[in-house]
Structures are given as C-alpha cells and as structure tokens.
Amino acid sequence: MTSLLPDTAPDFSQPIAVLKHCHGRIRKQLATLEKLLAHLPGHGADEQARQAASAVLRYFDKAAHLHHDDEEQDLIPMLHAVAQGEDAATLQALAPTILQDHKDMDAMWQDLHEQLTAIAEGTGTALNAATVARFVASYTAHMEREEGTMAPMAMRLFSPEQMARLGQSMQLRRGLVDANAPLSPKLGQAVADLRKDYGQATLDEADVLDDPIAQFTAWFEQALKAEVNEPNAMTLATVAAGGRPSSRIVLVKQFDARGFTWYTNYDSKKSRDLSDNSYAALLFFWSELERQVRIEGRVERTAPEESDRYFRSRPLKSRLSAIASQQSAPIASRAQLEANYETVAQRAGEDPARPDNWGGFRLVPERIEFWQGRRSRFHDRIVYERQEDGSWTRQRLQP
What we know:
Elements: H1 15-43, H2 47-62, H3 64-82, H4 85-120, H5 129-157, H6 160-173, H7 185-193, H8 212-225, E1 233-239, E2 245-251, E3 254-256, E4 259-265, H9 269-276, E5 279-286, E6 291-301, H10 304-313, H11 316-324, H12 334-348, E7 358-372, E8 380-386, E9 392-397
Antiparallel strand pairs: 1-2, 1-5, 3-4, 4-7, 5-6, 6-7, 7-8, 8-9
C-alpha cells in the first residue's frame, strides 16, 4: 500500500520546490490512507495494514506539521512583506483560509491518529470513512490553493536573497543546520536589508476618540472587517520577582471599560509572575493594517462567577484540556499528556465544572498607545494616559 523508500527531495536552495515536494509526499500518504480504508474490511489489521498505518502516522506526526510551520512562520509573513496591489489583495483573502485549513486538518488528524495507532498496534480495525474522506478532501483542496496561488506568487516576488532566507529557515526547522551557526554573509545582509515601507493609513490627534477603549474598539472592528489573522491575539509580557521578563501570545476574550480579559491556568508561569508583580503589558499587532496597540497596567483576577460563565461557554474538549493540563509543568511525554486527558474525559462527563486553578485575568489599563505605520519609518503614535480621577489625557509621540 505504500513505499517505504523516501523520495529524493530538492535542495533547500529551491525552497518552493521543497514545499511542492512535501505536497507530493502528502498526496502519497493520503493515497495510502484511502487504500488502508478499503483494505481493512477484508483483511483486518494484518501486517500490510499495520505497516501502512505506521507509515501514515510517521509522516503526519513528524513531517506534516513542519510544512504547516514553513507556511505560517515564513512563507505567508514574507509574502505579506512584499506583496502589493492585486497580489496583496489576493494574499489578504487567501491567507486566513490557509491558516484555518491547518487548524481544521489538525483537528481531523487527532481523530484519525487514535484509530491509526490502534491499527498499527494490531488492536483495532476501525477507520472512520467519513473522517478519512474529509481529511483527504481538505488536504487536497488546501494544496491546490497553495500551488495555484501562493507558490507562483513567491516565485514572482521573492528575490534570490529572500529565497535563501526561506530555505535557511526550513533547514533550521528540520534540524539540518546548526541554529547557533552564523548566517552566511549573503543571507545575513539579506536579513539586515529586510524592510517594508508602510503607507496604508494615517493617525491624527483630530481623528482619534476621547476614550481609548472606544478607539481600540473602532480599530478592533476594522481588524475584523479586514479579516486580520487572529485579531484577538496579543503578546502578554510579565516580569517575575527576580526581574526577568517573559512574553507569550494569549487571546483576549473580552474588553470594555474595565480592561482587557484573558483566561488561563492560575498555576502557570504567567500567573506566578503576576502574583509576584501585578503589572504587565499587552501588545496587539495587526500587520495587515500596519497597526499596533500597546497597553500597560495592573492585572487583577476576574470574579469566580465571570470565570464560570466563560468556562461553560468553551467547547467540551477545551474544558477537558484545561482540567487535564498542569500548564507550564514538565511532563515525560506527549503520550502521558494524552493519557491524562483520557482519564479526565472519562471522569468529568459532558458538563465538567471549572477547576479552582483556572480562570480569568483582567489588565486594567493605565497607558494605551496606538501606532500607525507610515512611510520611511516616520510613524504616527498617539498615547493615552489615565489620570488619578479616571480621565484620560492624550498626546503625540515622536516615532
């Protein structure tokens, strides 16, 4: 059902060819998956079925996600940096679909993974035909979108230096070069020369609203309308008791006059930092609109009732994951993590209660800065600062 011999991949000096080669490998594994589905009813988990299931598992567990990372972390951001006019419009419409494809396919793969593992171990013969069909159709359509639009766009727009940078990143991701090795002079200069001249919009004192939360709401609505990729994603920066800063991406789940709210495990690294130092900073960056918003202030926990309401609104699997994971704590393996999840799923039922160590944080803003990219790095910056009586002042900052 499948060949165990690897195909010869193109050299990473041709990164787009490597991406297309990955597509070829994916298509072979999808074909193996379909053949396995047809093979099982008549033969069960025989040696041929176990080998096929193992081959599909190896590829999608170890290789497919690298292809997704190539696109999300390198190819799409690099295209955003150079695309203009019709290319920029095409990319803005296509990129969110590509990213959503990745999430959808990852979710389907989790369903298939358990079934394929049982077949590979000889303990099961079930493979859901509907899930296989959706998985194959989704991957096939996804690859056709990339091959028909993104790959040709990259070939037209990327300079040799940009191609070299993409190839270098792909090799680093696969452990084929030393991450600590210095960049080649040519690639190093290419990185130094990377720049994008902004010019979509302006930000003037006369145009902004008196209330920074109202101004943020207006910008957020524009980000939604522009279909910015994950407009609610924000960098959260905290500082531990020893003075060491730490940052990570979290998702804002509510914002209003009280502040900006997200939810997490109260035993996590960020939560411990906030226990030591209740001041933090948030950063929204909407590259498609050439905008960022910086927010600083004091962090407080949300009321238990508010955390309960949000917890009940989450999908069941997300609630179970929150219960099963001791966020930021070491664990021996992914298998142990999944075993913890299964234990919780069997015990918790369909309506698990929010654990005491999980809930919301709200940053109460004291300073909010709106940044609009402008040409030649002469950006617009308007900052609001909260006064003791609760009112806000605003002023322009130099870029």
